[in-house]
Amino acid sequence: MRALSRVLGWSSRAVAILLLALLAAPFAWQATTGDRFLTVTGVSMTPTIQLGDVLVVRAPQGDELRTPGQIVVAAFGGQADGALYVHRVWQTIDDGAILKGDGNDVPDPRPITQDEVVGTPRAHFAGVSAALLKTSQDLLARVVLVATALVLGFGVPALLRPLHRRPPAASIDGPRASHRPTMSEGVFR
User: Fold this and answer.
1) What pTM was computed for the model?
2) Which fold has domain 2-140?
3) What is the mean pLDDT of each run of 10 residues along the chain (189 residues)?
4) How many helices (H) and strands (E) does the chain have?
5) 34, 47, 44: which is closest to 122 by C-alpha?
């Protein structure tokens, strides 16, 4: 029983550590690379990029608009904190490029300049991985996940830990490890 308790305790701790590592991974990635995570809210890039997918977008390098076919994230009016969209470079022009979504029949009505480029996708998450990544960005989900990890890491092992009791004291009739005579027993030599 003790072996099972230990295995369950260590397994619980391992799951807690994994959960906390997965929760911290997006923040660590952003802190070390400067990338940002964007959730796709439109269908203009279907079937390449679907509604709800998550893109990891790296900062612009300055040459994103020179290669036809390059996928870029651009800001309407050049304001990176405003509305963003993801399209592919359809045609290069002197001052920038004309973009077109893979799911659109016609290219965008106006060209963009390099100043309007927010970045390019470094990674693309879809399906379950995108859902998990989006969930990990939600404050309530973070609180629940951290609480779950704490319960798994500390609570479950504490419940499983066998109670370590001292062995009962030797009875009067039982053997004693060391016996020293008392005054009433007397000492005979």
Assistant:
1) 0.69
2) Umud Fragment, subunit A (2.10.109)
3) 76 88 88 93 95 96 94 80 89 94 95 94 95 86 87 80 54 57 56
4) 4, 7
5) 34
76 Cβ partners below 8 Å, 6+ apart?
82, 83, 84, 85, 116
Query: What's the rounded Cα separation, in Å, for the pair 82 and 158?
Result: 49
| Domain spans, the chain | 2-140
Classified as helix, coil or strand, 91 is strand
Residue 31, C-beta contacts closer than 8 angstroms, at least 6 positions apart = none
**Beta strands 54-58 and 112-113, pairing class:** unpaired
Report the pLDDT value the prediction gives residue 103, as an integer from 0 to 100. Answer: 95
Nearest alpha carbon to residue 101 among 39, 38, 40: 40
Distances (CA, A) of 96 to 85, 90, 105, 114, 140: 16, 11, 21, 6, 42
Helix (H, G, I), strand (E, B) or coil at 164: coil
Residue 164: what pLDDT? 43
Residue 159 Cα distances to 18, 151, 152, 156, angstroms: 20, 10, 10, 5
Please count the residues of the chain: 189
The answer to whether residues 127 and 135 touch, using CB atoms and an 8 Å cutoff, is no
Q: What are phi and psi of 15, to 5 degrees?
A: -65, -40
